[in-house]
Amino acid sequence: MSRRRVLQGGLAAAAGIPLTASLAGCGSGTSISSNPNELVLWYWNRSISPTLLATAAKGIPGTDRKLRADVLGGAFDTKLRTSFAAQAYIPDLTAVNSNAALYFPSEDQFFNLDDYGAQDYKDDYYDWKWNLGRTPSGRFLFFPMDTGPTGFFYRADLFAAAGLPSEPDDVSAAVRTWEDWIALGAKLRETSDVALATNAVMVFNQYVNASPQRYFDSDDKPLFHSSDSAIRKAWDTAVAAIAAKVTRNLQLDTEQNAAWNSGKLGANIEGAWWMKVLSDTAPQTSGNWRIAQQPGDPGNSGGSFLAVPKSCKDPAAALDFARWLTTPENQAQSYNEIQLFPSAPAAFELGTMADAGGFYGDQDPLEFFSTAAQKVPTTFISTYENLTTSFTDQLRVVESAGKNPDDAWGDAVAAIDKLLKKRGVL
How far is 138 from 153, CA to CA, in rounded Å? Predict the structure, then answer.
């Protein structure tokens, strides 16, 4: 379904790998390459521009180092965390996906980029994206690459056929609240049997992604126990979507891809990177899709970072590479080449980024998402957020097996509380 999905398969396994060993520091001998002039980067396919990597292979601009870029397939997080645990074959730099919080408990494995002047570049990036690179303890470990501001993708032709608003401004006005969005989806399903969402987990996740409040506060205190928390509201919204038959209960990528092509799914809320996914999976629907504002404000879904492990031979040069890779000019190039949505607002001012070639009719997706990116809230992601997957696990059971939503919520909270107690959080 997306370039980010390749990481999810290894996430559960990776979560069980302890990273308790402490790296010795720069030049510790744990690096994957013994060449003193070579920095090794680990990344996954389509996470970094091949053209820019080829340039850095000849020499990282502003340094006397060269880059060796190794692309890893399969479970990226598992491989990276296994290398940390074994203290062997560790790259000098690594891409890190939007699940950067997975590495918060092991922050001593990475250099604090503040020590090398990273803060000098802060104003060149979206504040909310920059803040996601900082751990709860205050160390800046993850330098921003791409982002995923979200929007409401929809099939204008299917909406019009169902007697619903079909122009972006009209659709945006019709779904200003999640209640409005569910009501529109219920009418669409009743009129045409077209669903508005793949599954309830999508609804839950995108509600959370657009919220300034998530699972914990800045002191790692759980917030979801409160009946008016963002997580409880996200849960109730997802449950209401199930009851209104707005969701299609499609849990597999193959099912979802077929539904885009058949017209059984007529909409999705997702990040800007989904533009490429959609055009690849449903090319024959070109010209029928539009993008509207989602309920409430936009959120962020996806996006990645660069981090520098403590084994790096030259952390200053590694930061130079990260900065060069993410200049506005290079981010614009990365968008044109592999559709990575920029984290530097100035990239949109260059006028060099290509449009979607009519896939969205005469609508300009770049204009839409560059505006959305300015409205994404700054949020706090806790070290313990990766322990909260029981919410989505239980929500799938509600949708797929008809479990009572209140029982499912109680079971999710109990399972998460048990994990938090083991960690000493509760």
Answer: 36
